[in-house]
């Protein structure tokens, strides 16, 4: 009943805003996915989304976007049901003043999708405040958001064992984190764009669900508070001709509750907070060849630090400094295999082309290889050895825009894990994994 009330309230709010909106519409998305990893599962999903936008002249705008989602999975014990998600409900007010050093500013209040410049550390709906300032040569953005009011079935927040318990539980709301961001963009620095970003996230989970500092008995699958900070520098722009790049480095700091040696403890160990020192780096090269079917060739790599003494629960390591990178939200890498950006080296070759003259059809081919960056315990199920090679995946996507408001896409992928002596996975791990997903979208 609680979920039904939220559905009705969300639709009423969106419908009311639509009465006064200059623009509004309805999006329908239907997908069927057949996937085999360690289990075989067929998923049917239906999403109905209503959006509305009201322009307030030169002063700002109001935007809203909500969805009603239905999902049915064939796997035993998987979630089947109906839920609502309010993705966007934001009022933005601002003004432009191009004659002054402060060329413009805007203030936003409500729910919006907030993300760091890379989209790899944090990308999730959050409720809060945004402040945007435009200067002559620099843009500054400040964002403050809380994730604990977003549906757990629509949330990407997953840092700790407590977050995992929330995602797999019965409550409607998702993991609670308070996130603060400050981004500074220099759009033209010798032909390159430079972005400096700072992100702070505070764990808002209830203390009664966590391990207390000083506990002497090991509690598997349970951790403590996980508070983190991130500093990112990103550089993007042309290299030569049609060759472009986007490169970044992120340093992660913070604290987490670890199970450390303690000579005064009856067990020889106790839980205490230790510093977190980690990093994530990445680059993407893109070469545009418009004369050959509007093709784009790309190479991307992401490398995240690991820890040789990491546990399965993101909290509970036995070394004094935690070195495994822990992003706030999850990221999709492959259609089949998509591990968290922690203890990972990821390499991808990609190509996209539009072979039809109408340019309404696009094909995308990706080849990916995954490695570990440490030899300790891994959070990935099935990884038991000290080898680095995780596997290789090939994905093929076809996207066809039949009409301006009707599109269809088919995404397939095959993942070949490194099993036994060939890689990091146990010899009994599933040796061939695949996914095929058909999606039809309609805009009204």
Short description:
The chain has helices at 2-19, 161-167; strands spanning 23-36, 40-55, 60-73, 81-96, 102-115, 123-135, 139-146, 177-189, 192-203, 226-240, 243-261, 269-289, 295-304, 344-353, 361-371, 389-403, 406-417, 433-443. With 444 residues, the protein is mostly beta strands.
Overview features:
444 residues; 2 helices; 18-stranded antiparallel barrel; mainly beta; 18 strands; 55% strand
One letter per element, helices H and strands E, the order comes to HEEEEEEEHEEEEEEEEEEE
- Total of helices: 2
Class derived from helix and strand content? mainly beta
Total beta strand runs = 18
Q: How far apart, in Å, are the first and last alpha carbons?
A: 29 Å
The proportion of residues in beta strands is: over 45%
Low-confidence stretches: 16-21
Largest sheet: 18 strands, antiparallel, barrel
Computed over alpha carbons, the radius of gyration is: 23 Å
Apparent shape: globular
Helix content: under 10%
What is the average of the pLDDT values? Answer: 85
């Amino acid at each position: 009943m609680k979920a039904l009330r939220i559905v009705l309230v969300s639709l009423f709010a969106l419908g009311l805003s639509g009465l006064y909106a200059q623009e509004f519409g309805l999006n329908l998305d239907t997908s069927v996915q057949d996937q085999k990893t360690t289990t075989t599962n067929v998923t049917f999903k239906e999403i109905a989304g209503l959006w509305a936008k009201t322009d307030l002249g030169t002063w700002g705008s109001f935007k809203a976007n909500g969805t009603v989602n239905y999902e049915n999975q064939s796997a035993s014990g998987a979630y089947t049901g109906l839920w609502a998600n309010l993705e966007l409900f934001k009022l933005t007010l601002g003004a432009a003043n191009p004659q002054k050093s402060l060329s413009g500013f805007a203030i936003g209040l409500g729910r919006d999708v907030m993300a760091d410049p890379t989209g790899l550390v944090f990308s999730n709906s959050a409720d809060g405040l945004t402040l945007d300032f435009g200067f002559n040569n620099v843009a500054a953005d400040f964002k403050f958001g809380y994730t604990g009011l977003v549906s757990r079935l629509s949330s990407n927040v997953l840092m700790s064992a407590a977050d995992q318990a929330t995602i797999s539980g019965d409550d409607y709301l998702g993991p609670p984190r308070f996130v603060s961001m400050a981004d500074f963009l220099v759009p033209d620095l010798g032909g390159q764009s430079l972005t400096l970003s700072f992100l702070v996230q505070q764990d808002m989970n209830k203390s009664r669900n966590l391990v207390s500092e000083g506990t002497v008995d090991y509690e598997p699958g349970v951790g403590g508070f996980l508070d983190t900070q991130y500093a990112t520098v990103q550089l993007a722009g042309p290299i030569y001709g049609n060759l472009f790049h986007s490169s970044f480095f992120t340093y992660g700091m913070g604290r987490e509750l670890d199970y450390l040696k303690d000579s005064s403890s009856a067990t020889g160990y106790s839980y205490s907070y230790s510093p977190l020192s980690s990093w994530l780096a990445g680059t993407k090269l893109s070469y545009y060849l418009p004369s050959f079917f509007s093709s784009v060739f790309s190479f991307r790599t992401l490398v995240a630090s690991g820890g040789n003494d990491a546990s399965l629960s993101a909290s509970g390591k036995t070394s004094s400094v935690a070195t495994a990178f822990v992003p706030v939200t999850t990221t999709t890498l492959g259609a089949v295999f998509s591990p968290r950006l922690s203890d990972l080296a990821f390499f991808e070759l990609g190509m996209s082309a539009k072979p039809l003259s109408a340019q309404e059809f696009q094909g995308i081919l990706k080849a990916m290889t995954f490695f570990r960056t440490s030899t300790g315990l891994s959070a990935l199920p099935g990884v038991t050895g000290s080898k680095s090679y995780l596997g290789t995946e090939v994905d093929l996507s076809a996207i066809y825009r039949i009409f301006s408001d009707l599109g269809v896409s088919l995404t397939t992928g095959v993942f070949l894990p490194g099993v036994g002596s060939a890689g990091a996975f146990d010899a009994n791990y599933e040796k061939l994994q695949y996914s095929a997903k058909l999606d039809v979208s309609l805009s009204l």
